[in-house]
Amino acid sequence: MSTKERPILFSGPMIRAILAGAKTQTRRVVKLPLNERPWHFIECSHSAENCNDFIAGFSDRAGSVICIKCPYGKPADPSFDRPADRLWVRETWAVQHEYDSAAPSEIGASARWHYAATEDLGGLRKRPSIFLPRRGSRILLEITDVRVERLQEISDDDARLEGYDRSHAFPREWFARLWASINGADSWNANPWVWVVSFRMVDGGVVA
Q1: 17-30 burial, b if ≥16 CB within 10 A, otherwise e?
Q2: Sign of CA dihedral 9, 12, 18, 24
Q3: Whether the Cβ atoms of residue 156 and residue 170 lie closer than 8 Å to each other
Q4: Where along the chain do its domains lie?
Q5: If you classify domain 5-84+137-203 with CATH, what class do you get?
Q6: CA 66/CA 38 separation, integer angstroms
Q7: Which of 89, 119, 141, 166 could in theory staple to 199 by disulfide, Cβ–Cβ 3.0 to 4.6 A?
Q8: What are the CA-CA distances from residue 109 to residues 93, 113, 159, 179 (Å)?
Q9: Cα–Cα distance between 74 and 52 in angstroms, integer?
Q10: Helix, strand, or coil here: 3?
Protein backbone atom coordinates (compact mmCIF):
# COMPACT_ATOMS: atom_id res chain seq x y z
CA MET A 1 0.00 0.00 0.00
CA SER A 2 1.26 3.47 -0.81
CA THR A 3 0.90 6.94 0.60
CA LYS A 4 -0.82 9.42 -1.69
CA GLU A 5 -0.39 13.19 -1.62
CA ARG A 6 -3.18 15.55 -2.63
CA PRO A 7 -3.45 19.37 -2.66
CA ILE A 8 -5.78 21.26 -0.35
CA LEU A 9 -6.52 25.00 -0.13
CA PHE A 10 -6.62 27.06 3.06
CA SER A 11 -7.18 30.77 3.66
CA GLY A 12 -4.62 33.03 5.35
CA PRO A 13 -6.18 32.87 8.85
CA MET A 14 -6.39 29.07 8.64
CA ILE A 15 -2.74 28.86 7.47
CA ARG A 16 -1.69 30.85 10.52
CA ALA A 17 -3.78 28.61 12.77
CA ILE A 18 -2.18 25.48 11.29
CA LEU A 19 1.32 26.88 11.77
CA ALA A 20 0.46 27.80 15.37
CA GLY A 21 -0.82 24.27 16.04
CA ALA A 22 -4.35 25.58 16.66
CA LYS A 23 -5.97 23.95 13.62
CA THR A 24 -5.87 20.16 13.25
CA GLN A 25 -9.24 19.57 11.60
CA THR A 26 -11.11 20.71 8.50
CA ARG A 27 -14.63 20.15 7.15
CA ARG A 28 -15.41 19.86 3.47
CA VAL A 29 -18.78 19.20 1.82
CA VAL A 30 -19.49 15.67 0.58
CA LYS A 31 -20.46 16.11 -3.07
CA LEU A 32 -23.57 13.98 -3.37
CA PRO A 33 -25.49 13.57 -6.65
CA LEU A 34 -28.82 15.34 -7.02
CA ASN A 35 -31.70 13.16 -5.93
CA GLU A 36 -35.42 13.63 -5.30
CA ARG A 37 -35.00 12.12 -1.84
CA PRO A 38 -32.41 13.14 0.77
CA TRP A 39 -29.32 11.01 1.17
CA HIS A 40 -28.71 9.26 4.49
CA PHE A 41 -25.26 8.28 5.64
CA ILE A 42 -24.88 4.52 6.19
CA GLU A 43 -21.29 3.83 7.20
CA CYS A 44 -17.66 4.14 6.25
CA SER A 45 -16.26 1.14 4.44
CA HIS A 46 -13.06 -0.60 5.52
CA SER A 47 -12.28 -3.72 3.54
CA ALA A 48 -9.42 -5.37 1.72
CA GLU A 49 -11.00 -4.44 -1.61
CA ASN A 50 -10.87 -0.68 -1.03
CA CYS A 51 -8.15 -0.42 1.60
CA ASN A 52 -6.29 2.21 -0.43
CA ASP A 53 -9.27 4.56 -0.18
CA PHE A 54 -11.73 5.82 2.41
CA ILE A 55 -15.29 5.09 1.27
CA ALA A 56 -18.56 6.46 2.65
CA GLY A 57 -21.90 4.87 1.85
CA PHE A 58 -25.21 6.73 1.46
CA SER A 59 -28.78 5.55 0.86
CA ASP A 60 -31.92 7.38 -0.22
CA ARG A 61 -33.96 4.72 1.63
CA ALA A 62 -35.81 3.99 -1.58
CA GLY A 63 -33.49 1.40 -3.10
CA SER A 64 -30.54 3.57 -4.17
CA VAL A 65 -27.19 3.17 -2.45
CA ILE A 66 -24.01 4.97 -3.49
CA CYS A 67 -20.39 4.83 -2.33
CA ILE A 68 -18.27 7.97 -2.41
CA LYS A 69 -14.50 8.02 -2.11
CA CYS A 70 -13.10 10.71 0.18
CA PRO A 71 -11.24 13.06 -2.20
CA TYR A 72 -8.82 14.09 0.55
CA GLY A 73 -7.44 10.66 1.32
CA LYS A 74 -7.38 8.16 4.16
CA PRO A 75 -5.94 7.74 7.66
CA ALA A 76 -3.57 4.90 8.45
CA ASP A 77 -5.06 1.46 9.08
CA PRO A 78 -2.61 -1.03 10.63
CA SER A 79 -5.01 -3.95 10.06
CA PHE A 80 -4.46 -3.59 6.29
CA ASP A 81 -0.87 -2.31 6.58
CA ARG A 82 -2.26 0.90 5.13
CA PRO A 83 -0.25 4.13 5.57
CA ALA A 84 -1.89 7.51 6.00
CA ASP A 85 -2.26 9.83 3.02
CA ARG A 86 -0.93 13.37 3.08
CA LEU A 87 -2.19 16.79 2.04
CA TRP A 88 0.09 19.49 0.70
CA VAL A 89 -1.25 22.94 1.36
CA ARG A 90 -1.93 25.57 -1.25
CA GLU A 91 -1.96 29.21 -0.11
CA THR A 92 -1.60 32.70 -1.59
CA TRP A 93 2.00 33.17 -2.66
CA ALA A 94 4.61 35.11 -4.63
CA VAL A 95 8.14 34.73 -5.95
CA GLN A 96 10.76 37.32 -6.92
CA HIS A 97 10.16 39.70 -9.82
CA GLU A 98 12.28 37.80 -12.33
CA TYR A 99 9.43 35.28 -12.52
CA ASP A 100 6.62 37.82 -12.93
CA SER A 101 5.80 36.66 -16.46
CA ALA A 102 6.46 32.97 -15.81
CA ALA A 103 3.74 30.37 -15.44
CA PRO A 104 3.87 28.39 -12.18
CA SER A 105 5.28 25.37 -14.05
CA GLU A 106 8.13 27.56 -15.38
CA ILE A 107 9.35 28.82 -12.01
CA GLY A 108 12.88 27.55 -11.52
CA ALA A 109 14.87 26.12 -8.65
CA SER A 110 16.26 29.55 -7.76
CA ALA A 111 12.80 30.82 -6.77
CA ARG A 112 12.36 32.31 -3.32
CA TRP A 113 8.85 31.52 -2.16
CA HIS A 114 6.84 34.06 -0.16
CA TYR A 115 3.47 33.53 1.53
CA ALA A 116 0.81 36.18 2.11
CA ALA A 117 -0.48 34.52 5.29
CA THR A 118 2.72 35.30 7.19
CA GLU A 119 4.61 37.89 5.12
CA ASP A 120 4.17 41.35 3.66
CA LEU A 121 4.51 40.67 -0.05
CA GLY A 122 5.22 44.32 -0.76
CA GLY A 123 5.33 44.90 -4.50
CA LEU A 124 5.66 41.23 -5.43
CA ARG A 125 3.09 39.75 -7.78
CA LYS A 126 0.53 38.04 -5.55
CA ARG A 127 -0.74 34.75 -6.95
CA PRO A 128 -3.87 32.79 -5.99
CA SER A 129 -3.46 29.70 -3.87
CA ILE A 130 -4.95 27.43 -6.57
CA PHE A 131 -1.84 28.04 -8.71
CA LEU A 132 0.77 27.17 -6.07
CA PRO A 133 2.80 24.22 -7.42
CA ARG A 134 3.73 21.28 -5.20
CA ARG A 135 7.37 22.34 -4.94
CA GLY A 136 6.31 25.70 -3.51
CA SER A 137 4.18 24.28 -0.70
CA ARG A 138 5.67 24.78 2.76
CA ILE A 139 3.08 22.78 4.74
CA LEU A 140 2.55 19.05 4.54
CA LEU A 141 -0.22 17.42 6.59
CA GLU A 142 -0.71 13.76 7.46
CA ILE A 143 -4.30 12.57 7.78
CA THR A 144 -4.98 11.08 11.21
CA ASP A 145 -8.74 10.49 10.95
CA VAL A 146 -11.68 10.84 8.55
CA ARG A 147 -15.37 10.61 9.36
CA VAL A 148 -18.69 11.80 7.95
CA GLU A 149 -21.30 13.84 9.80
CA ARG A 150 -23.80 16.65 9.33
CA LEU A 151 -22.22 20.10 9.41
CA GLN A 152 -24.26 21.27 12.41
CA GLU A 153 -23.15 18.27 14.48
CA ILE A 154 -19.88 20.05 15.20
CA SER A 155 -19.20 20.38 18.93
CA ASP A 156 -17.44 23.20 20.75
CA ASP A 157 -14.40 20.94 21.15
CA ASP A 158 -14.24 20.25 17.42
CA ALA A 159 -14.77 23.93 16.62
CA ARG A 160 -11.65 24.63 18.66
CA LEU A 161 -9.76 22.14 16.48
CA GLU A 162 -10.92 24.10 13.42
CA GLY A 163 -8.68 27.00 14.44
CA TYR A 164 -11.03 28.78 16.85
CA ASP A 165 -10.44 32.52 17.24
CA ARG A 166 -10.51 33.01 21.02
CA SER A 167 -11.76 36.59 20.68
CA HIS A 168 -15.20 35.01 20.11
CA ALA A 169 -17.11 33.79 23.14
CA PHE A 170 -18.62 30.63 21.62
CA PRO A 171 -16.52 28.24 19.47
CA ARG A 172 -19.44 26.65 17.64
CA GLU A 173 -21.00 30.02 16.78
CA TRP A 174 -17.62 31.24 15.59
CA PHE A 175 -17.34 28.26 13.26
CA ALA A 176 -20.87 28.74 11.91
CA ARG A 177 -20.03 32.32 10.98
CA LEU A 178 -16.72 31.28 9.44
CA TRP A 179 -18.44 28.59 7.36
CA ALA A 180 -21.09 31.03 6.11
CA SER A 181 -18.44 33.63 5.22
CA ILE A 182 -16.69 31.06 3.00
CA ASN A 183 -19.60 29.08 1.59
CA GLY A 184 -22.46 31.57 1.47
CA ALA A 185 -25.11 32.96 3.80
CA ASP A 186 -27.43 29.93 3.65
CA SER A 187 -24.71 27.27 3.72
CA TRP A 188 -24.84 26.69 7.48
CA ASN A 189 -28.62 26.29 7.51
CA ALA A 190 -28.37 23.81 4.61
CA ASN A 191 -26.58 21.47 7.05
CA PRO A 192 -24.84 19.33 4.40
CA TRP A 193 -22.99 16.08 4.97
CA VAL A 194 -19.30 16.87 5.41
CA TRP A 195 -16.01 15.05 5.48
CA VAL A 196 -14.33 15.71 8.82
CA VAL A 197 -10.61 15.39 8.17
CA SER A 198 -8.18 15.46 11.10
CA PHE A 199 -4.48 15.94 10.49
CA ARG A 200 -1.08 16.71 11.95
CA MET A 201 1.66 18.82 10.42
CA VAL A 202 4.65 16.70 9.43
CA ASP A 203 6.73 19.04 7.28
CA GLY A 204 7.39 22.75 7.38
CA GLY A 205 9.76 23.10 4.46
CA VAL A 206 9.49 23.80 0.75
CA VAL A 207 9.99 20.74 -1.42
CA ALA A 208 13.13 20.92 -3.56
Answers
A1: bbbeebbbbbbeeb
A2: negative
A3: yes
A4: 5-84+137-203, 92-133
A5: mainly beta
A6: 12
A7: 141
A8: 16, 10, 39, 37
A9: 8
A10: coil
**pTM, 2 dp:** 0.91
Determine the Cα–Cα distance for residues 26 and 196; give it in Å rounded to an integer.
6
Output the tens digit of pLDDT for each of the chain's 208 residues: 678 999 999 999 999 999 999 999 999 999 999 887 899 999 886 555 666 688 899 999 988 999 999 999 999 987 777 899 999 999 999 999 999 999 999 998 899 999 999 999 999 999 999 999 999 999 999 999 999 999 999 999 999 999 999 898 999 999 999 999 999 999 999 999 999 999 999 965 555 4
Q: Is 116 exposed, middle or buried (0-12, 13-18, 19+ CB in 10 A)?
A: middle
Q: Which of 89, 56, 97 is nearest to 196 (CA)?
A: 56
Phi and psi of 65, rounded to 5°? Answer: -130, 135
The widest CA-to-CA distance across the chain, in whole angstroms, is 60
